[in-house]
Specification:
The protein is mainly alpha-helical. It has 10 helices and no strands. The chain starts with 8 loop residues before the first helix and ends in a 21-residue tail after the last helix. About 4% of the residues have low confidence.
Length: 272
């Protein structure tokens, strides 16, 4: 085409995802800190496991919602659906991708309303106060000091954290794990579409039902096991290493699963 239609919709999607990320960021770190401060020590693993399990349910329902939206034509509500001659199995079909953003955004907004009714401060349990310094006596002094040298304190704390070999190793390990998991979820739908001839709707449905629920179940069971055996730092490390090693060993089976490449005229075979 000499003139391709230009659209700036990607800018709105970029800004929307950026704002969504800013809003989602405090939930995990502050939520875990909240649980650690106001829950009994032996119950923290279960509560954190519940938090992560619920977080895994979001992508699962997202894939199911994506499966539903992919069955609907992109211009639903603006065109006569009876005049559309192609089906979701056709490569020219475009699903109503924008509908998922509206439903997800409205749901996120409604779920955020209860956070507005949380108290600004809570009284810590007496059991937690025994081992932790109370902030009430030093509150004014600490606030004044932080206002003056918050930048210096931040960089000093960041340097200490990154200088901790155990934490830095754990951070690198987590980055590798999430990178592999995200790549798996990103390309698996396209692989199922190309290799097995499935529609986008069915691919999203299968991934939402088979890939994510076992992960959430595993996180919840891990929290229960840690609570039952009251694992400390060393016990939790050994437990994590054992489970991760088994998971990676089983993941090697993916190298033995595959299909022959599709026959594409002009690429894998000649036009004749």
């Amino acid at each position: 085409c000499e003139k391709e239609p230009s659209s700036y919709m990607w800018i709105y999607i970029l800004l929307g995802n950026m704002l969504r990320g800013i809003g989602e960021t405090p939930i995990t770190p502050l939520g875990i800190s909240y649980l650690d401060d106001f829950a009994k020590e032996e119950n923290v693993p279960v509560y954190v496991a519940c938090l992560h399990t619920i977080a895994m349910m979001g992508p699962m329902f997202g894939f199911l919602l994506g499966s539903l939206c992919a069955k609907l034509y992109v211009d639903i509500g603006f065109v006569d659906l009876g005049s559309i001659t192609i089906t979701p199995q056709d490569s020219r079909w475009v699903g109503a991708w924008w509908l998922g953003f509206l439903i997800g955004g409205a749901t996120s907004f409604l779920s955020a309303i209860p956070f507005c009714f949380l108290p600004k401060s809570l009284k810590k349990p007496e059991e937690a106060n025994k081992d932790k310094i109370s902030c009430g006596l030093l509150e004014n002094t600490v606030i004044r000091q932080k206002k003056k040298k918050w930048q210096k304190d931040f960089y000093t704390s960041l340097k200490k954290v990154l200088g901790n070999r155990m934490y830095f190793t754990f951070l690198c390990c987590s980055l590798l794990q999430f990178s592999g998991f995200i790549g798996f979820l990103t390309y698996k739908p396209k692989y199922m579409e190309q290799q097995y001839g499935q529609s986008t709707s069915k691919s999203n449905f299968l991934i939402g039902m088979t890939s994510l629920p076992p992960v959430g179940l595993g996180i919840f069971l891990g929290g229960l096991i840690m609570k039952k055996y009251k694992m400390g730092i060393i016990g939790a490390t050994k437990f994590s290493f054992t489970m991760s090693f088994l998971a990676y060993a089983i993941s090697f089976l993916h190298f033995f699963v595959g299909c022959d490449n599709y026959v594409v005229a002009g690429m894998t075979v000649s036009y004749e």
